[in-house]
Amino acid sequence: MIKKQHKDHERAGQGAALYGGRDAFMTSSLEAVVERFQLDGASFYEYDEKTGLLRLRLRHASGVSFEHEENLRPGPGSAAARALASMQPVSSKGPAGRFLYSPFRFDYCDPGGGRGVVPCFGLVRMERSPRRRGFTAAESARADAYLRSYLQDYYKSEFFALHRKYDKNVSAITELSEVFATALRVSDSFRHILAGIQSFFGFDRVRLYLIDEPNRKLKGELSADIRGQIKSISYEEIPLEPGAHRFADIVLGKSSGAFMERYKDCVLYMPLAVQGVTIGLLIVDNLLSQQRIEPQELAMLKSFAGQIALAVDNSRLFDKVEELSLYDELTKLPLRRYFNQRFQEEFYRAERFKQPLALVWADIDYFKEVNDTYGHQIGDKVLRETGRVILSNLRKIDFPCRYGGDEIIILLPQATGEEARRLAQRLSQELGELRIPVPFSKAKELRVTLSIGVSTFPQDAASMEALLQKADDALYWVKSHGRAGIALYSDTVAQEAKAGAPGGNENGDK
User: Fold this and answer.
1) For the purposes of burial, counting CB atoms within 10 Å of the CB of 88, is it exposed (0-12), middle (13-18) or buried (19 or more)?
2) Neighbours of 463 (CB within 10 A)
3) Which of 35-39, 48-52, 423-427, 481-485 shows the lowest per-residue confidence on average (mean pLDDT)?
4) Order of strands, edge to edge, in the sheet holding 399-404?
5) Which domains does the chain have, with CATH numbers?
6) What is the pTM of this model?
7) Burial of 94 by CB count in 10 Å (0-12 exposed, 13-18 middle, 19+ buried)?
């Protein structure tokens, strides 16, 4: 009964090792032979026929299995040399202990490393201390037969390991294909792509660079690390010229350089191309951990290169289309739906940090008459020039918008009413100096003027709706007082409301 339980235990251990791959299987074989024959230790050596060295790969002693670096050169006539030559077990004894050398030879497949069928030739050294009994001929034969029987099942271990790799590859294909397919539909597609690659392969770092063709630069986009953190690397800009940087050389198909040769096992540089045109560079590395990137990982990632490139290119095109949908083609100003989003953000910021916020509402005077009299082509020129003048006079934090038709709104964060008035005066002056050619008209040219109303937070209004309404009221005041003028709500409409007087300055500019 005890012997049957012992065999069942061995089979269970061997079965578990079959699923653990080659190293797990060899560890299991050493543990099994040590337990079965009451050994003090066992060592697994591979024989290198070119150098004549026995290389220790694994050792099991005192209940612990561990890798150990030791090279032995079996001397002529030694027990190890005789075992390797005859492929029969050979025992020996000496001051260091009592040993049994059991030789083996089998082949295994290494498709991931690209080496095909690889022969494995060597021996297992079974060990007992000098104080214990040696190995009899009968015990040597039994131990050798037991070990050979155990190692014959190695092909099963290889089969299960390959089966797991296959399952993992199928899973990768499914998961990564889904990542790349959905990248176009997520709000931050580049982050989605890099996070998918990093989380599946577990690289130390994944970086994405894209080519800025008009400026002939390679620009950094994002970097994802093993902690799952994704950060912008937009500060990295590399001239796309030979010799400027190794990244540029890779994209341009030039020499790889010494750095790449030195770290070739733990860094992969993968140019991304769509229809033969390189659009960027994906870099994955294990520089921090110095872990070798496995050949099967390289092969899988390269197989996805086309899909990654398409996903990146589609995402970039999608962003461009989305950007175009937020901007007016004629004036190059943001459209109303973009303004509404930005207005909420700026108003919240002004409330929270108790900062002023000015809103300028401008209207091109007699724009309908321009279209009716001279046609829409001339009207379009007026809009283009107006947009150009506005964009050239704003600060980086200011936000203009074509609100509709010929109406333009400008948000001025951290600006007072007086600062908004000065901006409005510059716009009016610069536009007033413009002359739009109209060859078929009597005057041969057209002059452009603006009516402008200004309101401020918190002086004039305490809400977004009220701020818009007060700017519109100020604009209406200008239009009702001759147009081509500027009015601050607090200086005009509010003052008249206090005084109860409906009149005002006929010129509309106070």
Assistant:
1) middle
2) 11
3) 48-52
4) 399-404, 407-413, 357-364, 450-457, 486-488
5) 2-152 (3.30.450.40), 163-323 (3.30.450.40), 327-499 (3.30.70.270)
6) 0.43
7) exposed
